[in-house]
Amino acid sequence: MAVTTKPQLMNNVEAVRAALHDALVRDDRVLIMGEDVGARGNVFLITKGFLDEFGPKRIIDTPLAEASIVGVAVGMAMEGLRPIAEIQFADFIYPAFNQIVGEAAKTRYRSNGDYTCPLVIRTPYGGGVRGALSHSVSIEALFYHVPGLKILAPSTPADIKGLLTAAIEDPDPVLFLEHKKTYRSVKGEVPDGYYTIPIGKADVKKIGSQLTVVSYGYNLHQALDAANRLQAEGLSVEVIDLRSIRPMDRTTILESLKKTRKLLIIHEDNKFGGIGAEISAMVVEEAFFDLDAPIRRLCGPDVPAMGYAHPLEEEFMISTDRMAQAMRELIAF
Question: 135, 179, 221, 267: which is the annotated catalytic residue?
Answer without folding.
Answer: 135
